[in-house]
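Appendix B. Extra example for self-study. Work through it before the problem class; the solution is given directly after the inputs so you can check yourself.
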Amino acid sequence: MNCVTPLGLDLQHNWTALLEENTGIDVHTVGSFENIYTAKIKNLPTVQPDLTYLETMLYLALKPLIRSKILHAKTGFILSTTKGNIDFLSEGKSEEAELNKLAVKVAGLFGFITAPIVVSHACVSGLLAVSVAKRLIQMGQFDEVFVLAGDKVSEFVISGFNAFQAMSAKPCKPFDAERDGVTLGEAAGAILVTKSPEHALVEIVGEGAINDANHISGPSRTGEGLYRSISSALNEAGIDASAIDFISAHGTATSYNDEMEAIAFDRLGMHEIPVNSLKGYYGHTLGASGLLELIVSILSLQHNKLIPTKGFVSRGTSKDVNIITQKMDVPLTYMLKTASGFGGSNAAAILKKVNG
Amino acid sequence: MDSPLYISHYCKIEKGLISVDGNVIFHAGEAQFSDFIKQAFKYQQLDYPKFYKMDNLSKLAFLSAEVLLRDEEDKEDIALVLANKSGSLDTDVKHQESIQDAANFYPSPAVFVYTLANICGGEISIRHGMKSEQVFFVSDAFDATTIFNYATYLLASQKAKKVLCGWVELFEENYKAVLYLVERSGTKLHTINNINQLVKN
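Solution. Structure tokens for the complete assembly:
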């Protein structure tokens, strides 16, 4: 696994920065939005002149995983993104902005034999893409799947979140009493999902992705879809909620999202389980977020180290949540990753540490 | 895993025509998409004012699902597996127009929310109370193998009771929707060949 973010262009730099509790959020100007807080990568190198900014991020994220691999007919490639190369629209090039075009181009850089699969499911895309990989491997379509996720900060998305009045004027404060919206970010993450337990870091023991059927732009007040997604994952894993050692929540720092998550966790009796949101380090990286935060959570499992929720000071949800406020060394075996997004979407996955 | 799965019903919308299980139920002639879909909606005599707020992709997906699911009971566990080529590009272009010119800047939340491909699935879920598994794929052409395996997984793992699958593509005036319902009873077998024929013909 690997990631490319404002905190570093590889996994090790990200982990070091997280342990120092550095944030990737800073003041930037994006299009007509001057001096706003976003988590933008500052020094993205040029890899090839014909790659867009996002393609470069994706390339750098996946490259170290592919290095010595032989890509065969049972090797899958899944790309998770919400907006892909959306900047092409400002140049009137709508065809160039197609998500599948991006996937085919990136697949071509690495020489995948199988056709790419694109998962574009709002802010749960990155986590759902991992479930899709697992499911297609279980069905025998693939032996292994490279899951790559990425989105960049764009005027397109900022203007939309701003129109929704969902953007925070300051760096976001997940689950906090004074939270007032998201900080947008950009990142790419890559992970290899395989049926071979050899060299595996974690096992995906259960997952679910269930819709709220409630509202297209707001989460269910009762956290119904998230509750059901987590229940489905626990059921598949065959474990009780109490077996989970920590939760990496979506935690966007909007009033509605964090409240909904607290309610869903409470309904599942998970209010005492340590929870973090990584949005205070990375902002909301949209289609990358679920995968990026899963990757960081795997590092947490490996190192038996809980990462605190940056930006959180005091609880601002109606239900108790055990927000992690400082780094902690604790033995970790099971973790739950969740995500929720527009369209009433939710996703949950439970990982079990197998080696290390 | 071993019990056979079937395609119980299917619906197609293209070229001003709506058919269910191969029988034409509505035909609008040469109308533009927005007129056609409005006429078709009225013809269904549905009391669902939210329809008029949807973007064109959602209207297309909504109506396809409507004619298939209206007589279904117990819809909560019907999963939704959708795919298309253009994602939400049709609405992306509209949002881009609203921000293209700094002097004439008017982004709207009502448009922006539809700049995600899966929103049309969310609209179907809300309408039918489907608190169920969902995914949205984007590919150049219908990827029958992936959609087949994914739907089969959902039923075999008991993560869904039935699965509504299909292709919902719309960009400007080019549109095509083919949805089909996969379940444990029916006459047409759920095979990669059969779904390919349904969607690509």
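Self-check: The mean pLDDT of chain B is 96. If your reasoning did not lead you there, revisit section 3.
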